[in-house]
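Task: sequence design from structure.
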């Protein structure tokens, strides 16, 4: 869920990327739906909020996250397209994954056993892709977008 204190608003341009809407915020960043004007496709932008962008340790963690994502190739891990800086902003450009988050799905009530097993299987299949890479990513993160058609993406 977008918060009222998101850094960017609809229409903000970050180089070739135009923010369309806020998707949500977490511990390491804010996520937006954006349009890539060069390739004419929608993408996800994960941006470091202003205060974090000036924190050397957080910038280093963000850099490591980008490097780990770039080293992975798995159907349940969102592809990274770019790590970019624009003016005072540092952000990742990622594959846009449609679907409700795991947290939203859980909030709707009990998950039928067949669906729960499918989600658990997809998490288990993706987990080896980032094991041992020091990503610090939590594959059980409640912010994972899930889709029963295409699966979840980290």
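Answer:
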């Amino acid at each position: 869920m977008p918060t009222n204190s998101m850094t960017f608003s609809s229409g903000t341009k970050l180089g070739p990327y135009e923010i369309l809407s806020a998707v949500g915020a977490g511990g390491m960043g804010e996520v937006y739906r954006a349009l890539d004007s060069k390739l004419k496709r929608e993408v996800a932008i994960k941006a470091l909020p202003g205060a974090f962008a000036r924190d050397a340790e957080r910038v280093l963690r963000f850099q490591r996250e980008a490097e780990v994502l770039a080293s992975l190739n798995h159907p349940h891990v969102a592809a990274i397209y770019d790590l970019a800086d624009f003016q005072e902003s540092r952000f990742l450009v990622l594959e846009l994954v449609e679907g409700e988050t795991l947290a939203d799905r859980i909030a709707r009530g009990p998950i039928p056993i067949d669906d729960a097993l499918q989600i658990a299987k997809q998490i288990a299949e993706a987990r080896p892709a980032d094991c041992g890479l020091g990503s610090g990513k939590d594959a059980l993160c409640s912010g994972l977008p899930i889709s029963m058609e295409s699966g979840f993406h980290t």
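The chain is about 30% helix and 25% strand.
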